[in-house]
Write a structure and sequence with these properties.
Keywords: Hydrolase, Signal. It is built from eight helices and five strands. With about 325 residues, the chain is α/β, with parallel strands linked by helices. The chain has one domain (about 35-260, about 315-325): Rossmann fold (3-Layer(aba) Sandwich), CATH 3.40.50.1110. The chain has a five-stranded parallel sheet with strand order 2-1-3-4-5, covered by helices on one side.
Length: about 325
Amino acid sequence: MFPSLSSTAVVALSLCSAFGSASVLPRASKQVYPGFKNLKYLFTLGDSYTQTGFNLTNGSPLPTSGNPLGNPVYPGWTSANGPNWVDYLTVEFNKTELLTYNLAYGGATIDADLVTPYTPTVLSLKDQVEGLFVPILGPKPSYAPWKSSDSLFLIWIGINDIGNSYWNGDLENFYAVLMDEYFALVEKLYTTGARNFVFVNVPPVDRSPLTVGQGAESVALEAEAIGIYNGMVETRVKALKKAHNDVWAQVFDSNKLFNKIIDNPSKYGLKNATGYCESYTNGTPAQDTLYDECLIPVNKYFWLNNLHPTAPVHKVVAQELAKTL
């Protein structure tokens, strides 16, 4: 069974100038993105849309040649009832072997002190960066000797931040606080050597069965919140590149992609893009399981349950991400 998971300073480089003038301090040299085929390491962070159940610290197999995702056994513990976008990007749409360290955790918010997750044990993006990546992978250990030039950082966060806050009002100010924390964490990744980034924006979960089932007002409020949040991500990514001329960064528009699939599901081999079947909610024995009461196989639904898309949707995400890369 593939179980479903619950929903979920700019650091200056101080260089001594022989001329004693700050005006002649050199900026970091421009780094050129090496291209997808030249990447060796992927570091992924986020929530249940990204999680595969990877454990960095319990002694389980870590990513290595022939087992690029490490633990658990492929495709891992995903919310997709099969492989998710990280799985597909690593093993199907990759251009070369990619060793993928997936630190994402189901239910994650950016910072649990700002938006409370569904349970206290959830590892927020802050936990993933400060508690796992920076101290363990940041020093480039012998088993993961990554370089700025051969690694890519993919972050998909915000779904739970919005889902747990969109009705609160004053979103412009609150999401600005969230962005401050989000990109402060990105700066911490930068200090370890991270230079290549993809930020996945928030998909239209206002069209999910969870929100639609709460009525038109909820749909409108969440759609507005997503628009504000995604606009701020775009602005912060531009600022990141302006602050660091050696950073390559892109925003991947999952919102646009999900809308395309939902609006024309048959183009993507799907038959139902608005509802889900209760019998499939917690996962099925196979990716194409058919229960009579559900009328169509699980992989013909867009939604596995009230918030999480099925593996075929994740496959499209990975395919389009690969084009971006």
